[in-house]
Amino acid sequence: MEGDISLKNVYISDLGIKVYIKKVKFGELRDENLQFHLQVEAKMLNNFARILIEMLSNDNQNILGTIDDVLANLQISPELKAIIYECLHAIDKVQEMEQEQYDNEVTSFILQEKIIRQREEAESDKIKMLEGRDEYKELMEFKKAVEKTGQAEELAMRAISRKSSKP
Question: Hey, where are the domains in the chain?
Fold first, then answer.
C-alpha cells in the first residue's frame, strides 16, 4: 500500500448509511506470503486508529505532541482507548513478531551447525582411537563401499560404534 489512509479518504453517502474509503493507492506488486499480509493489515489498523483519533479530536488541524499523547488526552472510554492504542501499535507488534521469528531461525541454524560439528568431532575421535589397528583399515574400506550406496555416514558410524564397543 502506498501512502497512508486518512480522513481525506473517507466518504459518506446516503445520509451516513454508507461509508466508503476511496482513492487508496495500492502498489503494483503484491506478495502472497503471510508476512506481507500481516504488514498490510498492521498498516491499515494504524491508519484506522489515526482516522478515529482525527474524528474524535475537536481540533484535528492543530494536534500537538505525539499521537499517543493525543490519544491519552481524548475524553473517551478506557476500552475504546485500549482498542485504538492496539491499532496504533499494530505495526510494532508485527515487527516484534518478525524479529522474534528471525532470531529463532538464526538460533536454529546455529544449533544445527553445532550439532553437525559435534558429530564430526565425535567421528574423528573414534577414528583416532582406531587408527593403527587392523580394524581401522577394515572400517575405512567398509566406509568407502557404503559411500557408494548413499548411506555412508549412518552405516559407518554404526559400524565404528560396534567395533569400538568390543574389546
Answer: 7-88, 96-165
Look at residue 133 in the predicted model and tell me its pLDDT. 66
In the block, cell 496504533 appears at 88
Q: Which residues contact 74 (CB under 8 A, 6 or more apart)?
A: 53, 56, 57, 81
Mean of the pLDDT values across residues 17-42? 77
Q: Counting every residue, how long is the chain?
A: 167
Judge whether 160 and 126 are in contact, CB under 8 Å.
yes
Q: What is the pLDDT of residues 45-60, one digit of tens each?
A: 888 888 888 888 866 5
SS3 11: strand
User: Buried b vs exposed e over 100-114: b needs ≥16 C-beta within 10 Å?
Assistant: eeeeeeeeeeeeeee
Alpha-carbon span 49 to 43, nearest angstrom: 10
